[in-house]
Amino acid sequence: MKDASTSLLSLTVAPAQVLRGEQALELSGNALARFGSRPLVVGGKMALPTKVQIVLEQEQLSYHLASYSPD
Q: Which residue from 44, 10, 48, 71 is spatially nearest to 63, judged by alpha carbons?
């Protein structure tokens, strides 16, 4: 039987960082860039094509957007 602590697969369930506040999306560029240069961003259909996309482009990230709608 294989010990779960020696598994090569690691899965993080909780978010690594949560940003909150009035201008969280507008100020999220630096935080997103720290995760890497090619983020996958999952969100709602209203926020993704506008504010999030602008922030990602300002940080010059090569990104992919995915919507969770409809859930």
A: 48
